[in-house]
Specification:
There is one protein chain. By secondary structure, this protein is mostly beta strands. Helices cover 0% and strands 67% of the residues. The chain is built from no helices and 8 strands. The chain has an 8-stranded antiparallel β-barrel. Strand 7 (80-87) and strand 8 (90-103) form a beta hairpin. The radius of gyration is 13 Å and the shape is globular. This is Negative regulator GrlR. InterPro entries: GrlR_sf (IPR043019).
Length: 107
């Protein structure tokens, strides 16, 4: 996957529910939004992320009170990539996202 800065729009059951920014550098991912931070890594065609709620009053569509992990497969496209997956311990809680490349990393 290409290194860079990406704008991400998240969906659940086809409905948008959030957006954020991620930075990918050497198969490591770090990012966040007003309510959560996410960090993880890429293995083959799988993105493994830990999500941390940093704003305690934030509501979560996943009904998670603390940190949780999500596993996502990805497919690269001309603008960035799309993701699809689920919460690690519950395949019934699904997530989809589209990531658009918005900038290069500083050298």
């Amino acid at each position: 996957m290409k290194d860079g800065i990406f704008y991400v729009v998240f969906r659940n059951s086809g409905h948008g529910f959030g957006e954020g920014t991620v930075v990918i550098n050497n198969n490591k991912i770090n990012g966040g939004d007003p309510n959560h931070t996410y960090s993880g890594h890429i293995e083959d065609n799988l993105v493994k992320l830990t999500v941390h709620k940093h704003r305690k009053s934030a509501l979560s569509i996943f009904d998670q009170e603390s940190n949780y992990r999500i596993n996502l497969t990805f497919q690269e496209s001309g603008f960035g990539f799309s993701l699809k997956g689920h919460v690690e311990d519950n395949q019934n809680i699904t997530i989809e996202a589209d990531a658009k490349f918005i900038g290069e990393l500083a050298i």
